[in-house]
Design a protein that fits this description.
Two copies of one chain form a homodimer.
Chain A lengths: L10 H7 L13 H12 L11 E5 L2 H7 L14 E8 L9 H19 L3 E6 L3 H8 L5 E10 L19 H4 E3 L3
Antiparallel strand pairs in A: 1-2, 2-4, 3-4
Helix pairs in contact in A: 2-4
């Protein structure tokens, strides 16, 4: 299912080796790889198959720089090869379902893993300032942008193969309960 | 990175072929495969690396049956080989961050894809009745169970290889916007 020359990786290897990448090579992503990433998100299952999501792919440098002002930890967007802004109904409005962000997380992980398989690093940024996102992206008032994902080939290629830091995750014995809490 | 005899699948193939499975073979999951699935969830990135999640793995048949009463679409849990209940801070309390369910979605997709790679089907169930979940699982008052994931070898092995239904997802051209909405 891979085109010739494309990097392929088992699911387990991708999950095990994936790390956050915030620093990217100044090199555009081939169009077909960017589309593959969005397509991976589109394939995710969602509550009652509602697919309450739209994805805005940004590659223009000035727009990426403008988008990096959406939050205090969003600086990595400025140097990304591409960003994908995730648009959903507003999950903070009264009575909004918690499933909006759950579904979006399922779709986003597909994108992050699909990118990693291709040797493309990524980092999610939380949008703190909705008005900046709306000004840059132009989405209508009835939807909302909670996250922007940065993508690009890692500035440090060793990021793709470096072993995970010890202690980065709570141990299995701590998070896993058997039969009851 | 795979043990001998284990099924391995590229990320893209897993994302493309994965389907919902609600009907399972009456055969327990080997302990190491169930642990692999939980471990996949544990590896997910989370907002500020908070890892606000605990996972309760249930394999006892009577407990699975009791758990299948948590919601109107949770019947598949009764016949699953295992269920993993996802425990987080309560995302519905006033002021709770939308990132709780986003993070949980990232972790859950890891589990669902890691299972699929191993030939194990899955289906998420929304918990509508918190009191039933709490009675069966025994988690403390300060945490909450939003979803239970069912896992098992598919009753119909063709589920693992059947091509996706046409029209099941919004087309790429509809969900993907370029540069601006």
């Amino acid at each position: 299912m891979s085109a010739p020359g494309e990097r392929s990786m088992s699911v387990w290897a991708a999950i095990r080796t994936k790390r956050m990448v915030r620093s990217f090579r100044d090199e555009p992503l081939p169009a077909e790889l960017l589309e593959r990433i969005v397509d991976a998100g589109r394939h995710a299952a969602s509550s009652k198959n509602q697919q309450r999501w739209d994805f805005i792919a940004v590659q223009d440098r000035a727009r990426l720089e403008a988008l990096s002002a959406v939050g205090p930890y969003a600086g990595h967007i400025a140097g990304a090869a591409a960003a994908i802004a995730l648009i959903t109904p507003d999950p903070t409005r009264p009575g909004a379902s918690t499933s909006i962000m759950w579904d979006l997380g399922l779709a986003a992980e597909n994108m992050l893993l699909a990118a990693w398989e291709l040797g493309i690093g990524s980092c999610p940024a939380t949008v703190y300032d909705q008005s900046i996102a709306r000004e840059v992206l132009g989405h209508p008032a009835e939807v909302w942008c909670g996250y922007v994902l940065s993508f690009g080939f890692p500035a440090d290629p060793d990021d793709l193969t470096r072993p995970p830091k010890a202690g980065g995750r709570r141990p299995l014995e701590e998070v896993l309960h058997r039969e009851r809490w």
